[in-house]
Amino acid sequence: MKKKVIAYNRVEKPVLEDLQKRYDVEFFKNIDTKKDPVFLKHLSQAEGIIGLELVVDRELLDQAPNLKIVSNVSVGYNNLNLDELKRRNIMATNTPGVLTDTVADTVFGILIATARRIPELDQFVKNGEWTSEAVEPDQFGTNVHHKKLGIIGMGRIGQAIAKRAHFGFDMDILYHSRTQKPSVEEKFAATYCELNELLSESDFICLITPLTPETEGLIGKREFQLMKKSAIFINGSRGKTVVEQDLIDALKAGAIAGAGLDVFEKEPIDPGNPLLKMKNVVSTPHIGSSTHETELEMSKLAAINLEAGLNGEKPPNLIDSSVWEMHK
Ligand code: NAP
Ligand code: GLV
Would you name the residues annotated as active-site residues? Predict the structure, then answer.
């Protein structure tokens, strides 16, 4: 009998079709995972889960007595209760690396779009409002090149952003991470500093940490007040690393000049969210890694992790390797 696998939200079609040859795969999207009876029935038999942003908590795990592995199609894994997974000896994996350059491109794209007001002026042209030859100074943007970029979270993606900023845009780079990184400092002429200094010195502030208990609400009222009035804030991490109401208040009060946001406290965002009415906010629907090529690579890697776990082998991207020690 084929092993039961649940695929959730996103697994690219060729990968899903390939998995279906060897496993009994049920695909679910946009369901209430706590209540959907069909989902719960399959969950009770599932040995593996592969997918995006399924909240795997105690309640869900109580319904999944046969589960061996949860394979995230994402590098972030704040959707997983790792302690509860470990307690039950269930492996969990993610997809680091294959999306790094794509996410850095997205973050940098949003940064430029916000600084140069590209979406706003695109609408101006498309609305037929471009009626005089020269645009007015109140439509000018701000330079990106040669400015100071503060990166919070100098991991894989943070470093790929630093590379673009240093080699492509001659930017000065400040960074803050849990640990100092001499090799990054050498490669990209980056300077380590404490968070307060980074916030008050940077022209652009780019947040790209994971969402953890330590980073939840990392940027709030106090942090926005430390930023320059001309600063542009970019969030590519997770919505909850920022206190969204404080960001709204800071933008309304002119405490910062603008924001570029790929992630939001609630996704999908409520249509009535004040951020969506602000011209100085550029918003994208959590598309950091969403290119055809990269989503395929992520699905492939997640499938490799899943199959290893199902076959009793160590998955290459095990998040907590102490779970493997219990499996051996
Ligand atoms: P990574 O290589 O693990 O890097 C994470 C960085 O964050 C590390 O430098 C780490 O510091 C730093 N960090 C962790 N906790 C911190 C804290 N409390 N204060 C300051 N810095 C802290 O991960 P990655 O591959 O770059 O991905 C980072 C995150 O980006 C993901 O977890 C995900 O949430 C987000 N992401 C978003 C999208 C999107 O579509 N918008 C796509 C992919 C990823 P140390 O190096 O010192 O440990
Ligand atoms: C996307 O947000 C990811 O964490 O890969």
Answer: 238, 267, 286
pLDDT tens across 168-221, in order? 999 999 999 999 999 999 999 999 999 999 999 999 999 999 999 999 999 999
Report the nearest atom of ligand 1 relative to the CA of 107. 41
Q: How far is CA 226 from CA 201, 229, 321, in A?
A: 9, 9, 39
Residue owning the nearest CA to atom 4 of ligand 1? 155
Residue with tokens 């969403």: 290
Q: Is the CB of 76 within 6 Å of ligand 1?
A: yes
- Measured in Å, residue 133 CA sits from the centre of ligand 2 at 42
Residue ranges of domains in the chain, CATH in brackets: 4-96+293-327 (3.40.50.720), 100-283 (3.40.50.720)
Q: Is the CB of 154 under 6 A from ligand 1?
A: yes
Report the 10 Å Cβ neighbour count for 8: 22
Is the shortest distance between the CB of 99 and ligand 2 below 6 Å?
Answer: yes
Quick: pLDDT tens for 258-306. Answer: 999 999 999 999 999 999 999 999 999 999 999 999 999 999 999 999 9
Residue 46, amino acid: A
- The pLDDT tens digits of the residues spanning 120-158 come to 999 999 999 999 989 999 999 999 999 999 999 999 999
The model's pTM: 0.98
